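Renewal narrative, Specific Aim 1. Our central claim is that a sequence can be written position by position from structural information alone. The example that follows is taken directly from our test logs and has not been curated for this report. It begins with the structure tokens describing the chain, in the order in which they were read.
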């Protein structure tokens, strides 16, 4: 039995599908990102960051975006594979950026938020010494409970010593979360969970978008050193190797001149010194004075 829809498709759904169909056609790179646990204010900040790079971030409805994929699959090779990642709460980033560059940008621009009880500290969380601009009151008991030393000066609470209230990897308690909130310390960095990218007909999974820049820098530096070493040893002049080649040739010419006793202005004193050392050695062995 074939299911026949009884109600007409709402106009807003048709408009949504039409809008996203045009967006997918317009941009070179499509990235699906998970937004579970990302608050609306944080999402708004990330949307502004994407916009600054001439991109678009849109929250999507999985079933409707599946319709969009069906609309463009004849023109966009392999785009149907994106359906495999349409689970949970998602958003779409559309841009003409390189997807690897976009992933690095997202990783570097995570948005700080307040700590919540149960969060895991991503690093040592420190309450630094100084004026809290908070009036003395019941909050003092919270400072004392968490072993944060304080004093009262000029009508406000001052922290007298930098204090680690939570170590990296530890669970943040309700008391710590409350103190950090009152001090306006936001230690938790929130970002989008990149699931997959699509560019020029190619599907790139999240793990393949991870780049270890330090490793790449190290490899490039090693390759440059090896290339210069090869150019020097092969006497192949380049802008990077010519000075080293000339220096190497000069030193070899000096050594040849000295060892072959070919007097040159640069080597005459070295030849004489070498001859004197040899003569003295022979005289000593022969017992001559």
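The sequence written for that structure reads:
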């Amino acid at each position: 039995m074939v299911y026949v829809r009884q109600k007409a498709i709402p106009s807003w759904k048709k408009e949504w599908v039409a809008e996203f169909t045009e967006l997918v056609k317009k941009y070179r790179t499509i990235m699906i990102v998970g937004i579970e646990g990302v608050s609306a204010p944080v999402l708004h900040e990330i949307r502004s960051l994407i916009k600054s790079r001439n991109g678009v971030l849109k929250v999507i409805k999985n079933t409707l975006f599946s319709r969009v994929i069906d609309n463009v699959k004849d023109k966009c090779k392999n785009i149907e594979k994106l359906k495999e990642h349409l689970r949970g709460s998602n958003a779409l980033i559309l841009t003409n950026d390189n997807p690897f560059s976009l992933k690095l940008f997202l990783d570097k621009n995570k948005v700080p938020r307040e700590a919540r009880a149960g969060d895991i500290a991503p690093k040592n969380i420190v309450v630094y010494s100084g004026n809290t601009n908070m009036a003395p009151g019941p909050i003092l008991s919270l400072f004392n409970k968490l072993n944060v030393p304080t004093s009262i000066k000029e009508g406000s609470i001052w922290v007298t010593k930098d204090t680690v209230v939570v170590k990296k990897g530890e669970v943040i308690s309700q008391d710590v979360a409350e103190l950090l909130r009152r001090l306006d310390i936001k230690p938790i960095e929130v970002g989008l969970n990149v699931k997959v990218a699509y560019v020029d007909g190619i599907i790139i999974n999240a793990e393949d978008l991870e780049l270890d820049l330090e490793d790449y820098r190290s490899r490039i530096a090693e390759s440059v050193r090896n290339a210069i070493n090869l150019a020097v040893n092969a006497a192949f002049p380049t802008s990077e190797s010519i000075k080293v080649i000339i220096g190497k040739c000069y030193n070899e010419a000096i050594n040849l001149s000295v060892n072959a006793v070919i007097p040159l202005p640069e080597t005459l004193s070295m030849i004489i010194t070498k001859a004197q050392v040899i003569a003295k050695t022979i005289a000593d062995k022969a017992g001559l004075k």
